[in-house]
Amino acid sequence: MFNRPNIDQSSYMRFGIIEYLILSGLLFLMYLSSLYNYLLFHTIAELSAIIISVGIFVVGWNSRIYIKNSFYLVVGLSFLFIAVIDLIHTLAYTGLNIFVGFDSNLPTSLWILARYWQSISFVVALILFNKKVNFYYLTVAQIILVTLFLTLIFQGLFPICYIEEIEQLTPFKIISEYVIDSIFIISFIWMYKLRNEFDRKVFTFIIISIIFMIFSELAFTLYTDVYGLANLVGHLFKIIAFYHIYKAIIKIGIKEPYNSLFRKIKLNENELTKKAAELEIVNVDFNQIFEASLPLRIIDKECNIIRVNDTYCALFNIKREDILGKKCYDCSPVSYCNSEMCSMKQVLSGTRNYEYVAEQALDTNKKRVFIVHSVPYLNVRGDFLGIIQNFTDITQRREAQEKLEISEYRYRTTFEQSPDGIIIFDPDTAKAYEFNNAICKMLGYTREEFSKLNVNDYDINESAAETRMHINKILREGSDTFETKFKTKTGEIKDVSVLTNIMELSGKKYFQSICRDITERKRAEEKIEDMARFPLENPNPVLRVNEKYVLLANNASQELFNIGEASLLPELLREPIKQCFLELQNNEAELHIKNEFYTFFFILNEKKRYVNIYGLNITERLKAKRRLERFVSTVSHELRNPISVLVTSIDFLENHAEKVTQDIEKKLKEGMTKNIHLLKDLVDDILMLSRIDDRKIVLEWKELKPYDLIQEILVLMEPIGNMKNITFNVKIDPNLILYADAKRLDQIFRIFIDNAIKYSAKNSIIEIETIDQYKGIYNEEGLDGILFKIQDHGIGVSKDDLNHLFERFFRSDKVSDIPGTGLGLSIAKELIELHKGSVYVESELMKGTTFYIFIPRIKSL
């Protein structure tokens, strides 16, 4: 707070009256001196103005360190040069005869230069009012300009202002006076707009000074004699103007410095107090937000941690005092200080928002995953002080994402492995939303090409309008099965059977269409029709009958039904034939004859009243179909349970987070992990069988030691065995050597040992032994090889189940509570046979099971 001494208003008025009386007296004396000697008057008047100009410079110069605006500096410096010009003008005045060879034009020109300088200095000072000015550059510029103009004047290059021969002012001089007045008027208006930036008295005195300078310049437009009345009045007005500059700048600036030099501070004091209060509120709010936000820490340029919030301390389980002042790289989950990933380096290089993912190992052999986000830490001037980092724990999100990716991978694998074409179809656009490679292979398109096709581009059975009606029908009924014709990329026409169901993805309805190529079946049906031309030569059963008797029969049909020509209709054919004649239409029937299945097509010849019967043995096809149905059903069942568990667990974690205790979370994660492994095992087993069936397994033969291989397996399975306290009794020669594929042999023994553990009771023994160069019942061809015997004392296998033990997906009803896919032993058997070996089993219910695996010693393959 800056205050001035309290001086009552009446004292100011008395002082003011006295000063104006003194000024009036001095002006009168100057006037009297002009009557005595005008040259004396002129010298006194100009010297008074010069002294005031120098004083203005002194005040402006010394106030530059206190005043933020540069008004006093510019005006003060300009008045120094005005004093110089006025001094030369005084010495050059007519009558002093100091500058020989010059007439009255010289002082007149110097006068015009000084007044231009004075008026323009006010405008420049107002332009630079709130701007920072370099004093050095300003001084050098004015010195150069003054020197230039003085040179022009003394060299006679400056425009003529006064013609002494005719004692008359030139138009340039008169116009210049008006221009100078105009500049003063501009300064007057500008000063008025900035009046709140000045002390009221300082503003008033400067305005009065400008007004009298305007009057002074007007007076100087009227004189013709340098000693005349107009010249006298102009000088008196100039003295009055400079007196008020004295009042405004020298007196007010020295006697009342707080009102002039520090007025800006006084005017801003209340505003600063208000802003300080607001700043305190903002600071409190910032601290509250800082403490309540994500885990945060602030690091200075020296990599020292200077501030952390409570959530950061809680996240990393540390105390604030234990981390403040430490280096950031000593307290980070991962340190990247010596790499380009360093947050400080990235921000300093211009990256305004930098983030990376970091992992931190925990004592539980798990990891926490964070997103570390860094931004610059700047002060109010924008100077770089360090960085601000926040930490987002995304561990659960990452785990859920990984599990979802695994589940999606399993589904994608099944989707892509399907032999039938599968299209996820958008009913709105009539285009494929997703599809597998089988449909592309069926039609000969690349994935990119097929994704651009409309259904009518390849389905040639329906027009666009008919397809839209068909889509609406499926939307109403929910599904449809139909046959159609697809055109391939090469133009080939294929018969296709389509099964379509509605499915929902993200709330939108889609069609899932399973497309099966039935071209070969259609061709077979056409061949059946052609069989009528060559019935006796057809290897399939072909007959021609009427309502009672067999008219014709080929050898296959005679053997199948034990009939001949003119025999009575076989009992199995009577009902389908009766239906043909009653309904006057063709018929079809599937019959079971002599432990085999046949499809018979009954083609009615209404005119000749007989029926041609064409039979096909479909036993193997039905077996394959049943195997496929059983395979699909089993896979669907095995996939559904673990997927349901995973979906339910993830949904519970996401939608009931507030109810999830650590114990519940642990159990959910254990269940999810268990089902993920089960899914993995199932898919791996299916893929392995698929590769075996497609003969894609290529063995890599090399020399190995069975003892080392089995020991590695037992080490890995020891934790599982320890859960049942199982003892492994291994009798294998460590030096025994075999040629085989190590990876596949490992799979074989792992399957048998895993089964032995799963179906053994607690505290039991599993025996593993080998017989080198075995010759016996388990080596029917008498090859040189090794017999492996794996025996457990578990629940055993019943005699009924023993014959099905190596069938795919076979699982006994007695072990339904033990996890498994029913594929392990079938895979093991297939891999053993790839090694030209064989496997046998002996078991007794509730006493145990023994597997005998014979692997021949093959040296050159």
How would you portray this structure in words?
With 861 residues, this protein is of the alpha+beta class. The chain contains 26 helices and 24 strands. The strands form six sheets. The chain has a five-stranded antiparallel sheet. The protein has a five-stranded antiparallel sheet with strand order 9-8-12-11-10, sandwiched between helices. The protein has a five-stranded antiparallel sheet with strand order 14-13-17-16-15, sandwiched between helices. α4 packs antiparallel against α5, α4 (105-127) packs parallel to α6 (171-193) and α23 packs parallel to α24.
Secondary structure layout:
Blueprint: H1 9-36, H2 38-62, H3 71-91, H4 105-127, H5 135-154, E1 162-163, E2 168-169, H6 171-193, H7 200-219, H8 229-255, H9 257-260, H10 263-292, E3 296-300, E4 305-308, H11 310-316, H12 320-323, H13 343-348, E5 354-361, E6 367-378, E7 384-393, H14 395-417, E8 421-426, E9 431-435, H15 437-443, H16 447-451, H17 464-477, E10 479-487, E11 493-505, E12 508-517, H18 519-530, E13 542-545, E14 550-553, H19 555-561, H20 571-583, E15 587-593, E16 596-605, E17 610-617, H21 619-655, H22 662-693, E18 701-704, H23 706-723, E19 727-731, E20 738-741, H24 742-758, E21 765-772, E22 785-792, H25 799-802, H26 824-834, E23 838-844, E24 848-856
Parallel strand pairs: 19-21
Antiparallel strand pairs: 1-2, 3-4, 3-7, 5-6, 6-7, 8-9, 8-12, 10-11, 11-12, 13-14, 13-17, 15-16, 16-17, 18-20, 21-22, 22-24, 23-24
